[in-house]
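Running co-folding for oxa(dethia)-CoA.
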Amino acid sequence: MKYSRIGGTGSYLPEKVLLNSDLEKIVDTTDQWIRERTGIAQRHIAAEGETTADLAEAAARNALEAANLQANDVDLIIVATTTPDCVFPSVACLLQQRLGVTNSSPAFDVQAVCAGFAYALGIADNFVRAGTARCALVIGAETFSRILNWEDRNTCVLFGDGAGAVVITASDSPGIHSTHLHADGRYEELLHVPEGVSRGYDAVRQQQAFVQMKGSEVFRMAVSKLREVVDETLAANDLDKSELDWLVPHQANIRIIKATARKLDMSMDKVVLTVQDHGNTSAASIPLALDTAVRDGRIKRGDKLLLEGFGGGFTWGSALITY
Ligand code: UT7
């Protein structure tokens, strides 16, 4: 079996919902501004003590159930996250322990911020194609609310918490046709959390341990790089844009998503849109959108999907998939 395919999908959103009208009481913003500039109506926020591993576990269990597989069938776990529970062990190892996977198979985290799920999927696909894994759990999970400055209206209205998961299994036919991963490290200043373990978190500098973003510059780069990666993906598969059934994009901003849809000549009813319900959940947003459209019956077996995402680093990536 020289390909990988999606065996099942799952997702999880924390119970607590924060509406735009709630944010009006915290920062100088309006429901109208947030909806018009981003498409977001609400986001979910992890409860006190609820961690990324908790969200990842719930999504992973959903995906395993959908794939009709048991935990010990899994021989690779990759978690895409920028907001892990602790410095180590990885969220993937925490998850392996919780799910009761005892077959000593590899488990690790990938940090590529909002492109993290595309990266994790690409890595898992390569493991399966190489014959070193037959059943991979690939998860995007984030508690971004923990790295937001709740006094900064430029960022705190945009993000939310959540997790999405897919089970990837070995297959005779694709499945995942190709993945395309990119990074350009020159743009650190436009989108970053400039503090961390090795730089230290002293009392003064801790003020900066939050997402900082130059929104309009990031917006322009996102639109341009996503256009490029969409072209690259179609060309690599000798596919015409009219042959795509669904665009499953990273859910950062409805205006970025519309720009990519326009580039593909896709009407918005062929685009899976969940940004209104959970905002930007970073690495979780693509699998959250995918699971939503699989479970509500829009995405069917045999459909051709284009997944894409762009985020801090900068990092960006895509995948062409027959579901
Ligand atoms: O997923 C990772 C990648 N991230 C992204 O893809 C995000 C990319 N960027 C964006 O989505 C958009 O740039 C934003 C939604 C962040 C901002 O939208 P924009 O249309 O680019 O607005 P802007 O940054 O140019 O700001 C326009 C105005 C400014 O006021 P002035 O200077 O024109 O008076 C901002 O201060 O909107 C103001 N503003 C707000 N007003 C009300 C910024 N945030 C808010 C807010 N409520 N929350």
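Result summary
The chain is about 30% helix and 25% strand.
The chain has two domains: 3-173, 178-322.
Job closed.
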